[in-house]
Amino acid sequence: MQAGEAIPRGRRSVIFWILGGGFVSSLVSFLYPLIRFLNPPAVSEAAVNEVVGGKVQDLTPNSGKIVRFGAQPVLLIRLTETDWRAFSAVCTHLSCIVQFDSARRVIWCACHNGMYDLNGKVIAGPPPRPLQEYTVNLRGGEVVISRT
Amino acid sequence: MLPTQRGSRAKAVLAWLEERTAWDSIREFVSHKAVPVHSGTIWYAFGGVTLFLFFIQVVTGILLLVYYRPTPNDAYESVQFIMTRVAFGWLIRSIHSWSANLMILAAFVHMFSVVFLHAYRRPRELVWFSGVGLLALALAFGFSGYLLPWNTISYFATKVGTDMATFVPWIGPALGRYLRGGNAVGGATLTRFFGFHVAVLPALTALLLLVHLGLVQKFGISTPPWVQERFRRSGTEIPQMPFFPDFFLHELMAWYGALAVLGALAALFPWELGEKANPFASAPAGIRPEWYFLAPFYTLKLIPGHIFGLEGELVGVLGFGLLALWWVTLPLWGGRPDGSVRMKLVTGAGVALLAYLATFALLGYLR
Amino acid sequence: MRRAFLFLLAAATLPGKDSCLDCHSQLPGDLQKPALAFRDSVHLRNQFTCASCHGGDPNSDDPQVAMSRTRGFVGVPARTAIPKLCAQCHSNPDFMRKYNPSERVDQYAEYATSVHGQRLSRGDTKVAVCVDCHGVHNIVPVRDPTSPVYPLNLPKTCAHCHAQAAYMAPYKIATDQYANYLKSVHWEELSQRGDLSAPNCATCHGNHGARPPAVSSVAAVCGTCHVFEAQLFEKSPHQPVFSSLPTGACVVCHSNHAILKATDRMLSGRDAICSQCHEPDSAGGETAAKMAAMIGSLQKKIEAADAILGRARDSGMEVSDAIERQTDARQSLVKARANVHAFAVPVISQPIQAGLAIAAEDYRAGENALHERNVRRKGLAISLITILIAMAGLWLTLQWIRSRRS
Question: Whole-prediction pTM value?
């Protein structure tokens, strides 16, 4: 480029387009994730302290089911119309998943015949410790399980 | 300057603004701002890079604030939520974590370039003091922010760090309690650190930045003594580059480069989530702090349990305190009242400190 | 009668005074040993004296009086008399209630039914009596880890006799039980994982009423812990067939003492147990092959899902949900393996299908995570390109400005 000579118009607008295009496109590539970040996600909260274990009518009296609570399985039991219990479903013996035995009204582990009563206390078999209990509340037709 | 068909409309808007603001004086001031051109010019960019990365931290930090919850029950899960459920949450979070490290690295590079280019000398002593203060604030940001994800590493790093604080003479235990919000690292510590990280430290940083940047504007960019000497002998002017637009365009390129690096790091090496902190578990083997605390960490590891009847950690903490004091007062013992510098002394001190930090950080990482 | 009276007299002596112990503690060698051993015992702790078992007068410091026959001293009791001697207290509920109300009092009755007890009553003094297992003078509760019948120590105590080929020669039974038991998964569970509920000799053979379970009751014995397997086995085609074999039920495939960890290799392959009876083209052989294939395929699918999730996690993707769900798939595999004991393909189908579904879902989650990772990298590439364009634009602008200036 010789001193004093003006740059041809065409060259100038190419530079303008590159600069402007670069700015705008890079700005878009920054703003797009930013704006989408602020958009509330489908699941609006991390399930931490409580988990919905289904609808009230999903579970008949004298039956139980396994519900996921964060990383852990929880055994939700409906004893009567109004009596709900929930316990950690992980057997304290060798970590098998326990189940509700509706005939004997106990919590039973199929692996080595461990048995817990409906307060989570060990009543038979090898488990060394009781099952951790969770609190169950009913809210708007849903069963809400939370840590005690 | 750039060709535009809408020139007259833009000019009208500008004229309206000029009449109602200090635009004229700002433009006048900026037009005189210049950067000396010599072999070390590239180092001048690092202050701006540090500042830019700080802005990245503020932006990504505010975004994370929208979803983060500062309680032990929720903190880890909220970060997990951000990483897995929020659109581009992984990006914002990883950029925030990487940029923290890059910002502190840039701050160190900036500080050492100031040492080796001797920009701390009269009349810029206050710029140095405020700068060291900003570095301390950056480290405090790093320390407080590290706890917020509430994973195993965070918890134990904070435990070790706050334990170190208790070794400061006289005020140690009180300082430890003050930092932890209690006698052990727990929920109180988390909320306290969160308050420091998003409110107290940003406010202090803003103040110090005003001082630091304001003084830099007042005194301009410093020229290294030997460049000054060379041009004084030859009788010619030191070549200058206008800050705006020349140096600023360079600066923008550096900022874009930093963004590219950050994006690549976030996408290729996402910041890990770790395991949720369990205060009752024992510390995992090989626990160590982030790289910017590794040198003092490793030094403390090497210090024997007792020296001359004093506890090893106490000696270590006192040593670091003295080192910090010595470093802060650099302009006072490194520069002379007439504006000259004890060049060999300061350069030697800078090399020694850099060597110590780098070696011990590396050893701390490897061992 | 007189003996009982003197015995109770001895038991009711002044608390604390035991001349036997005082004297024998000072004697040398073998005469001192019982006194030292008695120091640690539960009997001393409950203020019994030497005279409680040996008779004599513990209040007198004169050996002639203390060890006088007129005072009921019996010296070392005959082996055949020992169980009855212990039973005088330990089978008396009213007496035991004073010391431990919940302690059982039927040990002697059980002992009478055991092989040891019956042989002893016919005059065989080689068999075990109470003191052979519980210790003589240093008897501590079974709960105490130093007791020879503490679960961890019990197998060695039984082996004391049962592993000695020379000692056991007249009885013509095997002496390899202890050696076999040490290879077993039950011993591993007990000794390495500290699970005190794991079976030792007494769990299956009984402790006081020790005898081997009858062939017909083997499944019931194993089934007290392995309930599911026993229930399935009882309804399976193997039950009537195995009940006619000399070893019976579970032992046929799993052995009695050297019970190793059951693996899929028992179903098919070189080490298979099934093929020892069933020809490959028989109904049984085909069932075995089918079950092995189904279990093998579920195992492989689970491993494949683990692998892809591991890759996703290592490249920084968050797949902890799917990784946790894998435990459900593994549960299904455990259930399927337990269901093998029905020896019918339809019974293991259900858990296999459930497990396959979960593993497939988790595999898909891994695939999605890897796909998402690739999308991110493409996004990164795009933004890097825009950044490069912007940087090029800046640089060109700078050159243009400089050239305009000059």
Answer: 0.71
